[in-house]
C-alpha cells in the first residue's frame, strides 16, 4: 500500500514539476512528505522525494504551452519574382505593344491582353514560361507553329499576326477573342440541336482548310472551340462567330497545344482509336475527334468516360450508345452521322464534305409520337429510367431518372404498365414513400399512390404491374398478394396470399393480364396461375421434368396475347406457347448472348406476330418471329432492362 502510494506521488510530482515555480514545488514536496509520514510511510520512502525535488530545482523547466506560429511571408513577397518577370516581359515588348492585363496562364505559356502600338488593335500576346525558354526544341516548335498558323486564312481559324523575340522574350501576337468556349456552353446546356450542328459545321469547314495544308490538328475538343460574343442565333450561329484554336483565349482560360510529331498527345476522351494506339495519324483522326465533340454537344455527355486507361480501352474497342438513345429529340439522320464519324476503322468514316452536308441539311427536332404502338421499358440508368422505343428499337421518349426532384426516384422502376388513356405506370421501391406513380407520355408526373406498408392499399415490394378493364393490378411479392386500384390510384380490393397454389402464391414474380384474366408467375410453386379479375382461381400451367417425374420445371417468365399464353422454361431456355386450355402449341429457343444469364427472369411481350423477350439485367431485347420461329436481330437498349410492356398511343 505504501509503495503504491509512493509511486503515485512520484508520478504526480514529475508531472507538475515542469510547470511549477521552485517555491511552489518545495511546498508541494513538503506537503506530500508530511502526508506520507502521517500515513506511516518509512523514512527511506520519503527521502528520495526530497532528492528528486533538489534535482528538479537544478534542471531547466520544460515549456508545454501552445506553440507559437511562425509568421508566413506576405503574399507580395511570395509573388515578387512573378511580378518582376511580368515587368521584364512588358519592358521588352513595350516598344511594339502596350500590355493591358494578364488574362491567363497555361501549362506552357502566359497570355496577356495587349494593344499594338502601330495598328491600335487588341491582340493576345502569348509568352512562353521561363522554364521552357532554355529548351531549343521547344522554342523552335513554338515559332514553327506560329508560322503555320500565320499562313492560315479562314474565318473560323484564330489569326496569328506576328511572332518573334525581343531581348530574349519570345512571343506570338494573335487575334484577341471575346466569347465562350464550347465546353462551357455544353456544360451549361445552352445550345439547341440546330446551334450545336451549326457550330460544328463551321469547325468542319475550318478542318477542311487545315487538312488542305497537310496539317492534322490532333487535339479537337470543346475547349479548343470558341463561340464569339453575340454569335449564337435562334436558328444557328453567325458563320463568322466560331473559331477553332490551337492556342488562344477562352473565357480567361489559356488553351494551348504544341504539336509534337510521333507523340501520343491530346485528351483521351477525344482521341481517335489510332491516336490512342500511338499510331501514325492522318486527317481522318480529326474527323473522329470532331464526332466525339458533336456527340457531346448533342447529348450533353461524351460517349466514353472514366479513368485514362479506361477511356483509351473504350476508344479502341467499345461501340458508343447512339446519341438518339440518350436524347430522342435528335433526328435519326444526325444520330447516324455521329456514329459514322465514330467508326473504329478510319476508312469507314465520312469525309468532311459529307459531315458538313449532314450538319447543314434541313432537319427538325423529333418531338411527336407518330406511331400507334411503342415498347415501354424500365431500365437501370441515371437518366431516362422509363423509355418509349418504337418497334424498331429507336428511342422516342425518356422519362424519369435517378434523383430527388419531382418525377425522379432513388432507384429504377421495378415494373411498368400502360393504361388505355396513355398513362404510364411505374412501381418503385422507396421505404416510407409512395411506390406507384403515373406519368403522362410527355414525362409529367400525374399522381402517386400506394404508400409503403402492409395495410390494404399499401405495399412492401410492388414487383409487377398489369392493366386490364380500366384497373391497375399490383403484385406485391413480399405479401404474395394482388391489389386492384382504379386509374386514379384509389384502392379497390386485394386477394391472394402465401400458400401452395389455387389462388395463393409462394414467391410470385410476374404478372400478365387480358381483359378477362390475370396470369401470375408463381415462382416458388413452379407454375403460372390463371385468375379471374376478381381473384377467383381458374386454372394453372406447369411442366413436369419428365413423364415419370412429379417434379415441376422452373418457370421464369409469362406473357399473354389473346388466346395464347407464353411461358419461359428456364431449364430448357425455351419459350413455350400454349392455348388457354393448356395445350402446347410451339416452343421457341430464346438466344443466350454474351453477358446474359440463362437463369434470369424474362420479360415476355408478344405483339404483332413478334415475341419481344428481354432477360432482366441484360441490355437487349430478343425478337422471335412467331410464324417461323426464327430469331430476328435483337434490339439494343444500351441499359440493363428491368421491365417491358406495350404502350398504345391514344392520339
From TrEMBL:
Pfam families the UniProt entry points to: Pkinase
Xref: InterPro entries: 6-blade_b-propeller_TolB-like, Kinase-like_dom_sf, Prot_kinase_dom, Protein_kinase_ATP_BS, Ser/Thr_kinase_AS
Positions bound to ATP: 126
Keywords on record: ATP-binding, Kinase, Membrane, Nucleotide-binding, Serine/threonine-protein kinase, Transferase, Transmembrane, Transmembrane helix
GO MF, one annotated term: ATP binding
Domain named Protein kinase: residues: 97-374
Region (Disordered) location: 68-89
EC number: 2.7.11.1
CDD domains: NHL, STKc_PknB_like
Annotated TM spans: 46-64
PANTHER family: MITOGEN-ACTIVATED PROTEIN KINASE KINASE KINASE 20-RELATED, SERINE_THREONINE-PROTEIN KINASE YBDM-RELATED
Name the record gives this protein: non-specific serine/threonine protein kinase
The species this protein was found in: Thermus scotoductus
Classification lineage: Bacteria, Thermotogati, Deinococcota, Deinococci, Thermales
Amino acid at each position: 500500500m505504501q509503495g503504491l502510494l509512493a509511486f503515485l506521488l512520484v508520478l504526480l510530482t514529475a508531472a507538475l514539476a515542469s510547470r511549477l515555480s521552485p517555491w511552489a514545488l518545495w511546498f508541494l514536496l513538503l506537503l506530500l512528505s508530511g502526508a506520507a509520514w502521517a500515513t506511516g510511510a518509512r523514512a527511506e520512502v520519503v527521502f528520495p522525494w526530497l532528492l528528486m525535488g533538489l534535482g528538479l530545482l537544478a534542471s531547466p523547466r520544460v515549456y508545454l504551452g501552445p506553440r507559437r506560429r511562425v509568421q508566413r511571408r506576405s503574399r507580395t513577397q511570395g509573388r515578387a519574382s512573378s511580378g518582376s518577370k511580368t515587368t521584364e516581359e512588358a519592358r521588352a515588348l513595350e516598344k511594339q505593344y502596350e500590355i493591358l492585363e494578364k488574362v491567363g496562364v497555361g501549362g506552357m505559356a502566359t497570355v496577356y491582353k495587349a494593344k499594338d502600338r502601330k495598328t491600335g488593335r487588341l491582340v493576345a500576346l502569348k509568352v512562353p514560361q521561363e522554364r521552357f525558354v532554355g529548351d531549343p526544341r521547344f522554342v523552335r516548335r513554338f515559332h514553327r507553329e506560329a508560322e503555320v498558323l500565320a499562313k492560315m486564312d479562314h474565318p473560323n481559324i484564330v489569326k496569328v499576326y506576328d511572332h518573334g523575340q525581343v531581348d530574349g522574350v519570345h512571343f506570338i501576337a494573335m487575334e484577341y477573342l471575346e466569347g465562350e468556349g464550347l465546353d462551357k456552353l455544353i456544360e451549361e446546356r445552352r445550345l439547341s440541336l440546330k446551334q450545336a450542328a451549326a457550330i460544328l459545321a463551321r469547325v468542319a469547314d475550318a478542318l477542311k482548310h487545315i487538312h488542305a495544308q497537310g496539317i492534322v490538328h490532333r487535339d479537337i475538343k470543346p475547349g479548343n472551340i470558341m463561340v464569339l460574343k453575340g454569335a449564337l442565333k435562334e436558328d444557328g450561329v453567325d458563320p463568322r462567330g466560331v473559331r477553332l484554336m490551337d492556342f488562344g483565349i477562352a473565357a480567361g482560360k489559356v488553351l494551348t497545344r504544341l504539336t509534337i510529331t510521333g507523340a501520343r498527345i491530346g485528351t483521351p476522351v477525344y482521341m481517335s482509336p489510332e491516336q490512342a494506339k500511338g499510331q501514325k495519324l492522318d486527317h481522318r483522326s480529326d474527323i473522329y475527334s470532331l464526332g466525339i465533340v458533336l456527340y457531346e454537344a448533342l447529348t450533353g455527355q461524351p460517349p466514353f468516360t472514366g479513368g485514362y486507361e479506361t477511356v483509351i480501352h473504350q476508344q479502341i474497342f467499345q461501340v458508343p450508345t447512339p446519341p438518339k438513345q440518350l436524347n430522342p429529340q435528335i433526328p435519326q439522320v444526325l444520330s447516324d452521322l455521329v456514329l459514322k464519324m465514330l467508326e473504329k476503322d478510319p476508312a469507314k468514316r465520312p469525309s468532311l464534305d459529307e459531315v458538313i452536308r449532314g450538319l447543314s441539311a434541313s432537319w427538325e427536332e423529333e418531338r411527336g409520337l407518330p406511331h400507334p404502338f411503342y415498347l415501354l421499358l424500365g431500365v437501370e440508368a441515371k437518366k431516362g429510367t422509363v423509355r418509349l422505343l418504337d418497334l424498331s428499337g429507336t428511342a422516342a421518349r425518356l422519362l424519369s431518372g435517378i434523383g430527388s426532384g419531382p418525377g425522379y426516384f432513388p432507384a429504377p422502376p421495378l415494373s411498368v404498365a400502360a393504361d388505355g388513356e396513355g398513362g404510364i405506370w411505374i412501381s418503385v421501391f422507396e421505404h416510407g414513400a409512395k411506390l406507384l406513380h403515373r406519368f403522362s407520355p410527355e414525362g409529367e408526373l400525374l399522381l402517386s399512390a400506394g404508400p409503403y406498408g402492409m395495410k390494404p392499399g399499401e405495399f412492401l415490394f410492388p414487383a409487377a404491374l398489369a392493366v386490364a378493364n380500366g384497373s391497375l393490378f399490383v403484385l406485391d411479392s413480399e405479401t404474395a398478394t394482388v391489389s386492384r386500384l382504379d386509374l386514379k390510384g384509389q384502392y379497390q380490393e386485394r386477394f391472394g396470399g402465401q400458400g401452395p397454389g389455387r389462388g395463393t402464391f409462394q414467391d410470385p414474380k410476374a404478372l400478365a393480364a387480358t381483359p378477362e384474366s390475370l396470369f401470375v408467375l408463381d415462382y416458388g410453386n413452379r407454375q403460372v396461375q390463371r385468375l379471374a379479375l376478381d381473384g377467383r382461381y381458374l386454372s394453372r400451367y406447369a411442366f413436369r421434368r419428365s413423364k415419370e417425374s412429379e417434379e415441376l420445371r422452373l418457370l421464369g417468365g409469362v406473357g399473354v396475347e389473346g388466346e395464347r399464353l407464353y411461358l419461359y422454361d428456364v431449364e430448357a431456355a425455351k419459350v413455350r406457347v400454349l392455348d388457354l386450355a393448356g395445350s402446347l402449341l410451339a416452343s421457341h429457343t430464346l438466344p443466350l448472348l454474351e453477358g446474359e444469364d440463362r437463369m434470369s427472369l424474362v420479360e415476355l411481350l408478344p405483339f404483332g406476330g413478334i415475341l419481344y423477350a428481354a432477360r432482366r439485367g441484360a441490355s437487349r431485347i430478343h425478337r422471335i418471329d412467331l410464324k417461323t420461329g426464327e430469331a430476328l436481330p435483337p434490339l439494343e437498349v444500351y441499359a440493363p432492362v428491368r421491365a417491358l410492356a406495350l404502350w398504345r398511343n391514344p392520339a
